[in-house]
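Why show two proteins at once? Because comparison is the fastest way to build intuition. When a single record is shown, students tend to memorize it. When two are placed side by side, the eye starts asking what differs. So, the first record is below.
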Amino acid sequence: MIRVDREDAVGVVTVDRQDALNALDVATLTELRDRLRELAQDDGVRAVILTGAGEKAFVAGADIKYMSSLDVAQAKEWGALGHEAGRLLETMPKPTIAAVNGFALGGGCELALACDIRYAAASAKLGQPEVNLGIIPG
């Protein structure tokens, strides 16, 4: 789900759930958080790039199918996990870059915004569609 490749002193983190447009479920967010923690502490990594696998999506946001099966406590835990991943990007002691390809919606947009720099392909679509449902973005 989360790939980490090293290119010299750059850690490239790729969210790879192409069948779900790289949408975020608990397993994906947990793994993303864990890999970001490791990279933050790795002195051999001088910068981190976050991207999505494929050309359709960076991260299309929350996995709505998964989300519909959660109870209130599980949903709160999942939200806290997303905030933790975002905070890791915001506070990383090295530059973070979002390489945005395709959809970066909801939580995906928030992850891109948490990075120091955003580099978007011409095909990138960024947004917070949850506001149309009366949900406040993270």
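Second record. Ask yourself what differs from the first in the token line.
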Amino acid sequence: MFVTDGLKTYIDVVRKAFRTSQSGTGGRPRLIGWPDLVIAQVVKQYAGRAVTGALHRLVEGSVQMFLTLLWTTPGCQVLNTAFIERLNGTFRSRLAVFGRRTRMLARRVATVEQGMYLVGTLYNFCCAHSSLGLAEGRQQTPAMASGITDHVWSVSELLHYRVRPLRWEPPARRGRRSRALRALIDRWCPHHRLA
């Protein structure tokens, strides 16, 4: 379930992001949206600069799925955009590119993406949140609350963590493989049958 404000761009982006390719068709596979995706909107109504109310809309998904997700999510029985606004505020305060009225520019999209990954990972693994505190007074990070880790990470621990690379698969090519490629296959994936 995604809860957004009144900006239509969010809805289009969420619909595009959560699609699965349909297999078994000729040509390029069609992308089909997830059947259990629920998108809701909270649109604030203003009189001048004061908020006078909020309009709640179900944009996509069934009412039954919406109510099930709303009532089974701990601490979230009312639609609000507080979580996404807090995350946007965190990105805005920690990445100068997203700050309002800033002189900082991003010249490449890759720079912004890498900065967002770094800030998002620090936010989830290194920053304890008071709203996620336990009964015994112990602080938790979002990664601890979701069961990914059991302790608050330091920035040094995060930056020095080694991620195991994916298993190497030889490239699929037509024709005979070169001697150098066969040597690599023998070394890195002996289970692979040579063609």
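One difference worth noting in the second protein: The mean pLDDT is 82.
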